[in-house]
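name: query_chain
kind: protein
chains: 1
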Amino acid sequence: FFFTFFDSYDMWWGTLGTVRPFSNFNPDKDAMELQAALEKKDVNTVVRILSNRNNAQRQVISQTFEELIHKDLQTALKKVLSGDLETFMLQLMMYPLHFEAFRLQQAMAGLGTDEETLMEILCTKSAKQLQDVSVAYNQFYKKDLEKELKAETSGDFAKLVVALLNKQSVSGVVQRDIEVLSASLKGKKAEASPWIDILTSRDVEYLNKVFMGLEMETGQTLDQIVEKRFSGDFRMGLNILVQCIENPFIYLAKRLHTMKTPVVHGIMVSHSEEDLLCIRAAFIKITDTSLYTALQKNFKGDHLQALLAICRSED
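structure:
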C-alpha cells in the first residue's frame, strides 16, 4: 500500500516548504544513532535526527531501523518519548496521506465533531490530494470517508463538506455567478445551495473576481454577507471557505495564532514540505511576531526544539 502512494508523494512537495531533504542522508548511520539515543533516553538526539529529515527520508530510516535492529521505530519512540513531544514526533513519522486521513478521523472521533479542522483540511488541500486522502482513509480505517463525513455533519453544512471533498474546477461565467449568488440573498432566508455549488466548483482566481463583483453589487464585504445572512455550522464553514479562497495562508496563520497544541501540530506537520514558508510570512504579517518567536513564547523543552526545527528559522 505505502509504495503505491510513495510515487504520488511528489504532490506534497512544494519548494515553499521549510523541511527539505537532508543532503548527506545516511539511513544506516541515522538508524544506529537513533538506537543508541533511544537506549540512553537521549531525547535531544532523537529530535535532532528526525526533525531534520524530510518525510521520505524518515520512512527510509524507519525501514532501515527495522532491518538493522529488528524493532519497530514507532514502538521504540513511544517507550522513550511522552506527552506532546511523543504525539508530534509520531505524527512526523506518518506518511503524508496517512496523516491527513488521521487528522480527519480524529476530528470526527468521540463526542462532538471538530468542524473547524474538517474545514481546514477540505479547504486547503487540492482536489487531487483529497482524492488520495479518501483512498488512504479507506485503507487505514476500512470506512468510506464521504459516508463518515455525512454521518458526522448535518443540513447545509453536510452538503458543503461533501461538495468540498469532491471539489472540482468547472468553467463558469463571472457575471452570471455574481447574479446567482446575489439572487440567493434576496429572500427572507438566504439560499445555501448556490453558494455550495459555485464556491466548490470554480478555481480561486475566478472566485475572487466573483467576490469582488458581489461586494460591488451588494455594497457589503463578503464577511458581512456571510455573517448576516447565514447561521450555525454552515456560516462557520462558509466563512472558512471564503477566507481560504481569499488567502489560505492568512487563514492558516490565524489558526496557528491560537497556539492550541493540536492545531499547531496539525498545520506544521501537514504543511512542512508544502508551503509553511508562506504561512510563516502570513503569520508575521498579521501578528507582527514571527512564528518562531511565538512558538518560543508558548512551548518549552524538547517539544519546543522539535517545533522550531520544523519551523526552521526566524523571519
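note: The CA atoms of residues 299 and 307 lie 9 Å apart.
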